[in-house]
Write a structure and sequence with these properties.
alpha+beta, five-stranded mixed β-sheet
Length: 220
């Protein structure tokens, strides 16, 4: 291995380590919602409801990877490429489920969740999901509404805008996002991103932990 290759590998390792550290610190530090009582039951359907949004197709195994996320959360944005990588690696085997969990301290996060859910109702969930993370640096942490920006994303991905506008403003979509929040709170979710693998909470310490936990689940 050349000196330059070694340096590149070290830098890549440091970047991954920094991303994982951000995820861990965020899931510990962004506890902006009160924890439920210790005896609150974590029912299975609160984790993977039949209509929960999936990334890709249902896997052939019974293994599920669930993420409670906030599109405005920097740690969720940092986790996005890692999740994309494991999705490719375990495509066809593992079911990847997304649950909305916009945090109160993020001004546009609930709006972003409604925009993504509205796109999902037109079969474009994944396109809008990716769009939010790819553009997060341009709108995240803003203290003004970005409804018009999110609407422009809907236009870019080719949604029927009359339907999008109606869904985005509807009580039904708002209630759908709130149900995910309520489920997360019941399950003890306090910060984002929060991961579950086969119903068990999973807090990665390294990037390799994602592969390890999925390999172990698939081996059972």
């Amino acid at each position: 291995m050349s000196k330059q290759t070694k340096i590149t590998a070290v830098v890549a390792g440091l970047v991954i380590a920094a991303i994982v550290a951000l995820i861990v610190a965020s899931s510990r530090g962004e506890a902006e919602r009160p924890a439920p009582a210790a005896d609150t039951p974590a029912e299975e359907n609160a984790l993977t409801r039949p209509d929960a949004r999936m990334l890709g197709e249902k896997g052939s195994s019974d293994v599920t990877f669930v993420e409670f996320l906030d599109f405005e959360c920097e740690a969720c944005g940092a986790a996005y490429p890692i999740v994309e990588d494991i999705r490719k690696k375990y495509a066809g085997e593992v079911t990847f489920v997304v649950r909305y969990f916009p945090l109160p301290g993020h001004f546009n996060s609930e709006r972003a969740a409604r925009a993504v859910e509205s796109a999902g109702r037109q079969g474009q969930f994944e396109a809008m999901y990716s769009k939010m993370y790819e553009t997060q640096a341009t709108w995240g942490e803003a203290r003004t509404p970005h409804d018009d920006l999110f609407r422009s994303f809907a236009e870019e991905i080719g949604l029927d805008m009359k339907t999008y506008d109606a869904d985005y403003a509807s009580e039904e979509v708002a209630a759908r996002v709130q149900r995910d929040i309520d489920d997360g709170t019941e399950l003890g979710v306090q910060g984002t991103p929060t991961f579950f693998v086969d119903g068990e909470p999973f807090q990665p310490q390294t990037a390799e932990d994602f592969d390890r936990v999925l390999d172990e689940a698939l081996a059972q």
